[in-house]
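Lab channel / #folding
Pinned by the channel admin:
"Please post every new chain as: sequence first, then the structure tokens as a reply. Keep commentary short and put observations after the output so the thread stays searchable."

First post following the new format, from NK:
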Amino acid sequence: MTQQRGGKGAGAVLGAATAATGLVAGVWFAYVCSVMPALARSDDRVYVEVMRNINDVIQNPLFFSVFFGATILTAVAAWQYRATRARVWMFAGLALSVAVFLVTSAVNVPLNDALAAAEDPSAARAAFEGPWVTWNIVRAVLSTVGLACLLRALSVRTRSGD
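Reply from TO:
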């Protein structure tokens, strides 16, 4: 089977997809190992207030460009490398990136919205904290494995000359 090269600029797209995926994984990891454990030490009112503030300020062009860019760039790279030995790793990375997007959209964002609308901090925290932390760990793992897949795609691409 003849390997088709990804084309001009394909390496840059794959590199950007890998970097964006790493940044997204890093955001979720930071929550796992620092933000949420620190907030767990807070009383209910402080916990809810800080999470509301975080959920508000994270909605900015820089975060959105990285968060959406990770999936979009990975999709473009997967398409560019669809006929190469790197394709399996690309499509695995893409599937994991889509899974992160779906978990965020279907679970974490609705939990954030419910927290924003809640009036009683104790009840809000009780409904929010456990599920949000659990699903954030899922996002962190999915993103990290996706990053590993894209790093493997870069390695395969480099070794095969694609």
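NK: Residues 30 and 79 are 31 Å apart (CA to CA).
TO: also worth noting, The mean pLDDT is 93.
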